[in-house]
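Q: I'm building a small set of examples for a reading group on sequence design. Run inverse folding on the following structure and report the sequence directly after it, with nothing in between.
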């Protein structure tokens, strides 16, 4: 009986399903749409990377001030050389809604910002709530 009391905490700490699910959401909402965007005219913007990879930076879900679970992620890019540029895009994925947010200039925005959508910053997302005091 003593051993069984630890089973739920061990199972929820590194839930591989939440990691795989979060990676799939980031692939669907950020990586694939960015790969499909092709500039059709001359631009001074940086060239598109050859590769992108998703990293879940902490597999244990965090809770925001409203008690919603989220998982932080980062997207790394490679432009043709062997070196990866880490943290090109950082943000979080909400577990219940599947919403994906990215961090820009100290604020969090819906991921659609990367696709040229005019969206406003959303306050209170992707920020872990402070631990409760006893």
């Amino acid at each position: 009986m003593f051993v069984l009391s630890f089973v739920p905490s061990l199972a929820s700490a590194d839930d591989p399903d939440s990691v795989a699910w979060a990676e799939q959401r980031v692939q669907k909402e950020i990586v694939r749409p960015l790969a499909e965007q092709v500039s059709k005219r001359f631009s001074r913007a940086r060239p598109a990377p050859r590769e992108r990879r998703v990293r879940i930076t902490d597999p244990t879900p965090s809770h925001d001030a409203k008690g919603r679970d989220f998982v932080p992620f980062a997207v790394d890019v490679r432009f043709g050389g062997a070196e990866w540029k880490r943290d090109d895009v950082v943000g979080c994925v909400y577990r219940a809604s599947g919403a994906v947010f990215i961090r820009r200039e100290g604020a969090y925005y819906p991921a659609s910002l990367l696709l040229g959508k005019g969206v406003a910053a959303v306050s209170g997302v992707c920020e872990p709530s402070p631990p409760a005091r006893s």
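DSSP finds two helices and six strands in the chain.
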